[in-house]
Specification:
Blueprint (H helix, E strand, L loop, with lengths): L19 H34 L3 H29 L1 H20 L4 H18 L3 H8 L2 H32 L8 H4 L1 H15 L3 E2 L8 H24 L3 H28 L12 H31 L4 H7 L1 H22 L1 H25 L5 H27 L7 H26 L10 H29 L29 E2 L2
């Protein structure tokens, strides 16, 4: 995720006596929680959506990938809009839009409307999320921020554990006969309350000298990703047409045009979407590669895992959600140990151990799924899931600090925004690749008796790819600093922070 920059000039410290700041904190943390839960809650409901709406598997991929793509493409711009127009104002626009988009998702009459509403939801999250810790910076004095960042860590852990369970309970409960729709409609009362309370209790703030918007940069990034992702997700069901390969090759040309444009924009006005000079820092360039590839691996695993349990094994959403609890708990426990005890002592080796442990968990899961087939139980899955979760926890918590540790202070805001952006882009790419590594080994027309064995086979095939991805991450991590130095205030504890804001927020009366 992101981290926040250090002040370059003295700015007014927020007052400690103002009780409203705790209300403001509760509101922005609720928004951050909504975003985190919304990412995880949808996966568990995917089979129900597919059944109810008659969605194709490529549409299912876009329900999740569309959100990630819109979120990634808009993150840096969302942060800069807050710098320019005021964090409170943009936050309220974001949470209002997120609430409306959630309503549209819940009321969707067909898969196309659901995909479009999810893309809108991701775009609104990109306005909302970057303001969260910018508002904290403007609202809390420096000596209280450590406590606040710790609370954010707890919220992230809670979001990871509760998202799948909440999704399972809401889907399984079939409230008012609405099936999967309550997973989106639950955002409505929360969003309306946050909008009302936020307008009363959040203090407005702006950056003294905000960077300019780079909308052509956003357009080029989005176009390149669409040219890559659309043929990947649709290719299999369309018989891999020639235009798909042309489009994917053309994406590389657009990426090259993006680099040329960003270089020219940086020289012209110093506010490119992507600060290319950062890639001359070896640890940052390697860290961005790690974040992207890690996002790909997670994108593949979580969607395939859900489809395997609910469609392949025929489990209920609730059973699938409960099966994932050991994984979520292991991630939370290992993440806490990693940051507080292990990384200060062993440095980079902890992250590399995490990649190997997670790969080992994936391989154990592969062996068990292959051995037990359709007879596998939740208890038999617990061991590989705990091992995988422990490995993931060792990586996710300290990775941002490791990537940022050698970045010049003046670029910390841009760098942290880019980290989260590429992770989301990697996630979207992973979701696109599901059609290749999972559906690519499953026949299109299956008799009911063939579905289970075919999905088990697809799952083990996809796990082999995830293990290979984790092996690549292990090797890339050799380019990270041996002992990350914490340059950036709040990086260790802050899971959601401003993506820009090259200066400390300035209070607006």
């Amino acid at each position: 995720m992101h981290s926040t920059d250090i002040a370059h000039a003295p700015t007014p410290e927020p007052a400690t006596g103002d009780r409203r700041r705790w209300f403001a904190l509760a509101i922005v943390m609720t928004a951050a929680f909504m975003d985190l839960v919304d990412v995880t809650i949808v996966n568990i409901a995917v089979p129900s959506i597919q059944r109810d709406e008659g969605a194709t598997f490529s549409q299912i991929q876009w329900i999740t990938a569309g959100y990630a793509l819109a979120f990634a493409a808009g993150l840096v711009t969302g942060g800069r809009l807050g710098d320019i127009h005021g964090r409170k104002r943009v936050f309220l626009v974001g949470i209002g839009g997120f609430t409306v988009a959630s309503a549209l998702c819940g009321l969707a009459v067909n898969p196309e409307m659901l995909v479009a509403s999810r893309i809108l939801q991701g775009a609104m999250a990109a306005l909302m999320v970057p303001q969260v810790l910018s508002i904290v910076h403007a609202t809390f004095p420096a000596h209280e921020r450590g406590k606040v960042f710790g609370l954010f860590g707890a919220i992230v852990g809670l979001g990871a554990v509760s998202g799948p369970l909440l999704g399972a309970l809401l889907t399984e409960g079939n409230l008012f006969g609405l099936e999967w729709r309550p997973i989106f409609l639950i955002n409505l009362p929360v969003g309306v309350a946050a909008l009302f309370l936020g307008s009363r209790f959040i203090t407005e703030s702006k950056a003294p000298r905000a960077l300019k918007l780079d909308l052509p940069g956003v357009a080029l990034v989005t176009l390149a990703l669409l040219m890559l992702l659309y043929p990947l997700t649709r290719g299999r069901e369309l018989g891999w047409p020639v235009w798909g390969y042309v489009s994917m090759a053309g994406a590389l040309v657009v990426f090259a045009a993006l680099v040329a444009y960003e270089r020219a924009k940086g020289a012209r006005d110093g506010s490119p979407l992507i600060e290319l000079s950062l890639f001359r820092v070896k640890s940052f360039a390697a860290g961005i590669a790690v974040q992207t590839v890690f996002g790909v691996g997670l994108g593949v695993f979580f969607l395939v895992w859900t489809l395997y349990m609910q469609i392949g094994l025929g489990w209920s959403a609730l059973r699938a959600g409960l099966t994932g609890v050991p994984f979520s708990v292991a991630v939370s426990v290992a993440a806490g140990m990693s940051v507080q005890q292990l990384v200060p002592r062993f440095g980079r080796k902890v992250l590399q151990a995490g990649a190997l442990v997670m790969a080992a968990g994936v391989l154990i899961y592969l062996a068990e799924a292959d051995h037990y087939g359709l007879g596998i139980t939740s208890w038999q899955m617990a061991l590989p899931l705990v091992v995988m979760g422990a490995g993931m926890g060792l990586i996710v918590a300290p990775l941002t600090d490791a990537v940022l540790s050698e970045v010049p202070r003046e670029h910390a805001g841009s760098a942290s925004g880019l980290i989260n952006t590429v992770q989301q882009m990697g996630h979207a790419l992973g979701l696109g690749l599901v059609s290749v590594v999972f559906f690519g080994v499953i026949d299109e027309r299956l008799a009911p008796a063939e579905v289970g064995p075919a999905f088990v086979n697809g799952f083990t095939h996809a796990l082999g790819w995830v293990a290979a991805v984790l092996g690549a991450i292990f090797l890339l991590m050799f380019a990270l600093p041996k002992r990350p130095a914490q340059h950036v205030e709040g990086a260790a504890g802050a899971e959601e922070a401003p993506v820009t804001g090259e200066k400390e927020p300035e209070l607006v009366p």
